[in-house]
Amino acid sequence: MQNSKTPKLTIVGAGPGDVELITLKAIKALENADVVLYDALVNEELLGYAANAEIVFVGKRLGCHAYTQDQINELIVSMANRHGHVVRLKGGDPFIFGRGSEEIDYVEKFGLETAIVPGISSALGVPASVGISLTQRQIAESFWVITGTTSDHKLSKDVYLASKSAATVVILMGMHKLEEIISIYKENRTDDLPIAIIQNGTKNTEQKVIGTISSITKLVSEKKISSPAIIVIGEVVKNTSKLTSYFQEHFDDEFIFQNLNLE
């Protein structure tokens, strides 16, 4: 039977993990979907909004790909032509290391209508959820968001530049490069910067470990922290209301705490 619906792709950001951190616009897109292609970091509870859609898992995790990116691109086009409205559901924000723009560019060559629904990036939402403000007056005037692993599986060169900056640094997909990241900071810095690592941020399975450049590798090993996780490096980690008591308890001899103006 010939599909009478207009082939369309909507790229949707699912947020960092908590099902309540998805936008109303994203929910409406899921409710109107004929097909949903979803990624590994998407909370599967969100699929309940797509009650009338065909659901296909296309996730990619380290060493395990359900589909290659080329196959996903082709699947979007074929599903849209066959069924109509395809929602591509991605964790976080689809344009922050999410290949959203690549998929838009590909399908538009085949005449598909396209739309984009931004999401809360894990780079912003996860630190905020544990009380880390990426910028703070007189502490951090900017922040970097860097991928820990590039498309050729190497550490991004931006980590070298960021390690010399006073900015807060947020590293995504960096747990498999943690020792290399720590080595760079030790090489480029004389101060023992605070660092927080949050695994499964905003989910019920969230775990976090907080330390310094010199202590974090041991702490990660002891607490068995692994991917998916966000790495946050900078003075803002210890100058955060929810974490200050932690640092006072565990690192009292190492840090001089400042009173925060939180107005």
Low-confidence stretches: 252-263
Shape: elongated
Proportion of strand residues: 15-25%
Strand order of the largest sheet: 3-2-6-1-7
Query: How many individual helices?
Result: 8
The secondary-structure element order is EHEEEEHEHEHEHEHEEHEH
Biggest sheet layout: 5 strands, parallel
Residue share in helix: 25-40%
Which labels suit this protein?
263 residues, alpha/beta, 5-stranded parallel sheet, 5-stranded mixed sheet, 8 helices, 12 strands, elongated
Characterization of the model:
- This protein is of the alpha/beta class and 263 residues long.
- Helices cover 28% and strands 21% of the residues.
- The chain has eight helices and twelve strands.
- Strands 3-2-6-1-7 form a five-stranded parallel beta sheet, sandwiched between helices.
- Strand 10 and strand 11 form a beta hairpin.
- The longest helix has 15 residues.
- The chain is elongated.
- The N and C termini lie far apart (62 Å).
Would you kindly provide a brief summary of this structure?
With 263 residues, this protein is of the alpha/beta class. The chain contains 8 helices and 12 strands.
Note the topology.
Blueprint: E1 8-13, H1 24-31, E2 35-38, E3 54-57, E4 60-61, E5 64-65, H2 69-83, E6 85-90, H3 100-108, E7 113-117, H4 122-129, E8 143-147, H5 158-162, E9 168-172, H6 178-188, E10 194-199, E11 207-212, H7 216-223, E12 229-233, H8 241-250
Parallel strand pairs: 1-6, 1-7, 2-3, 2-6, 8-9
Antiparallel strand pairs: 4-5, 9-12, 10-11, 10-12
